[in-house]
């Protein structure tokens, strides 16, 4: 005999959502890795995108304008930090 079809059995196991903070941290790690990869592969283009009229990001990219080597070094740090942050999310 089948169980009666109630809303909870139609949807499946209803459990509370996972805490928000681990998801936010994971998204930050993904952003760091992705931004780092783009900065590593295309440092000049990536800096040029953010050096003018970028809602304050101009200040952050100023040290990298016309310095692709510096941006690549920062990209490696960014990627490593993002991967380390993601690794800390293991349960």
Describe this entry's structure for a reader.
This protein starts with 6 loop residues before the first helix and ends with a helix. 66% of the residues lie in helices and 0% in strands. The protein has 91 residues and is an all-alpha fold. 12% of the residues are buried. The chain is built from five helices and no strands. The chain has helices at residues 7-11, 20-41, 43-50, 57-61, 68-87. Helix 2 (20-41) packs antiparallel against helix 5 (68-87). It is elongated.
Order of helices and strands: HHHHH
Estimated helix fraction: 55-70%
The radius of gyration is 21 Å
Task: Characterize the overall form.
Answer: elongated
Summing up helix and strand content along with how strands pair, one would put the structural category as mainly alpha
| Biggest beta sheet summary | none
Distance between the termini: 39 Å
Low-confidence blocks of residues: none
How many DSSP helices?
5
| Beta-strand segment tally | 0
Nearest-integer average pLDDT:
87
Tell me the β content: under 5%
Key features?
91 residues; mainly alpha; 0% strand; elongated
Summarize the structure.
Helix content is 66%, strand content 0%.
List the helices and strands and how they pair.
Layout: H1 7-11, H2 20-41, H3 43-50, H4 57-61, H5 68-87
């Amino acid at each position: 005999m089948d169980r009666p079809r109630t809303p909870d059995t139609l949807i499946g196991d209803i459990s509370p959502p996972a805490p928000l903070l681990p998801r936010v941290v994971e998204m930050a790690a993904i952003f760091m890795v992705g931004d780092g990869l783009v900065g590593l592969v295309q440092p000049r283009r990536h800096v040029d995108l953010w050096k003018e009229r970028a809602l304050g990001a101009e200040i952050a990219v100023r040290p990298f304008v016309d310095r692709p080597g510096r941006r690549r070094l920062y990209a490696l740090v960014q990627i490593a930090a993002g991967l380390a942050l993601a690794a800390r999310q293991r349960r």
